[in-house]
Amino acid sequence: MTTISSEDVIKEKILNVAKKNPKGISDKDITAAIPELSTGERIAVINKLLQQGSIDLFNQGGSLIYRLKIQTNKQAVKGADNEEKVVFNLIEEAGNKGIWIRDIRVRSNLANTQLNKVLKSLESKKLIKAVKCVNASKKKVYMLYNLEPDRSISGGAWYQDQDFESEFVDVLNRQCFKFLQQRADKIKNNPQGPIVGRTQSYATAAEVQKYITDLGISNVKLEVEDVITILNTLVYDGKAESSIYPDGSKVYRAIEPLLPTTGLVQVPCGVCPLIHKCTTTGLVNPQDCVYINEWLE
Questions:
Q1: In sequence order, what DSSP letters do the residues of 22-53 get, joined into one string?
Q2: Phi-psi category of 180—alpha, beta or left, where left has phi over 0 and alpha has psi -120 to 50?
Q3: Which domains are delineated in the chain?
Q4: Per the confidence metrics, is the pTM higher than 0.85?
Q5: How many CB atoms lie within 10 A of CB 30?
Q6: Alpha-carbon distance 193 to 205, whole Å?
Q7: How far apart are CA 134 and CA 213, in angstroms?
């Protein structure tokens, strides 16, 4: 087995894995990403990264998880003028949901020209970045350079460059439904009786996620919560029903719709990151909707 000799190279590889997985990585993830790394080397480098403050250690369900420590680059800001420090601190406080330039202007009390100059300076130093929002395509928010934008900003897996991927969502919708149908068909005539058969026809979101992952139809990594969003559109369409197991887990099964469905997934509302702002009677704030003008035209 080839051994990596350079400690710096190993550190860089581990940090790159952590950057791609902001929720944290395990020893198993590190081994999968760097298979040539021995156990002793991994432990030694991890300890060095912890001592340097590059990563944080968490105990998650009995497993050790390493998470990239949010580097505020205080040293880089230290030599900056007061205006840059004020703006940087405001952006840092906003976290991964970012802050509008208007709010920065109000809270920093800087003129437009000066604020733009400060923002460009911080961006050039790779301390901050501007991110477009799916719910306001003409606006952008600022956040720390190494942060992953919140799903309410990026739109999650259903958006590419702020554009809703309707075809991608439709494919996932059909494949999820196909999996539930196959599960139901296999045990339709269960010898143990219809009640047992009905119970066994349910599937968890994790099972559906594994099926979708194994198909290899997605270029992005789908989390279980992404699959739950798709499964919920099937429920809304009347193609599936959900139930809760005694252990509290939610499960889904395919059903025959009584009436032809309009197909909620055909419009973005089914997977909209702002759907929580809607009510049964309409939008709480219609101006927040990305799509309402398109559908009214």
A1: TT-B-HHHHHHH-TT--HHHHHHHHHHHHHTT
A2: alpha
A3: 7-68 (1.10.10.10), 74-154 (1.10.10.10), 157-296 (1.10.10.10)
A4: no
A5: 20
A6: 25
A7: 26
Distance, CA of 55 to CA of 70 (rounded, Å): 8
Handedness of CA 161, 272, 218, 30 (dihedral sign): positive
**pLDDT tens string for the chain (297 positions)?**
444 447 788 888 888 888 888 778 888 888 888 888 888 888 888 888 888 778 878 776 667 888 887 655 555 565 567 888 889 989 988 888 889 999 999 999 999 999 999 999 999 888 889 988 776 667 789 998 878 787 777 766 666 666 666 788 888 888 999 999 888 887 666 555 555 556 778 888 889 989 988 888 877 778 888 888 889 888 888 888 888 877 778 889 888 765 555 554 444 555 555 555 555 444 445 445 544 444 333
Annotate 68-96 with b (16+ C-beta within 10 A) or e (fewer). bbeeebeeebeebeebbebbbebbbebeb
25 phi/psi in degrees, rounded to 5: -130, 155
Q: Where are the beta strands (DSSP E) in 72-113?
A: 99-100
Length of the chain: 297
Q: Cα torsion at 140, 146, 151, 157 (round to 10°)?
A: 110
Q: What is the pLDDT of residue 2?
A: 41
H or E element, residue 207 = helix 205-215
Rounded CA gap, 70 and 148, in Å?
A: 11
Give the H/E segment covering residue 13: helix 7-20
Token pair of 208 as six digits: 């559906």
DSSP string covering 143-199, please?
A: EETTPPPPHHHH-GGGEETTEE-HHHHHHHHHHHHHHHHHHHHHTTT-TT-HHHHHH
Phi, psi of 188 (to 5 degrees): -65, -45
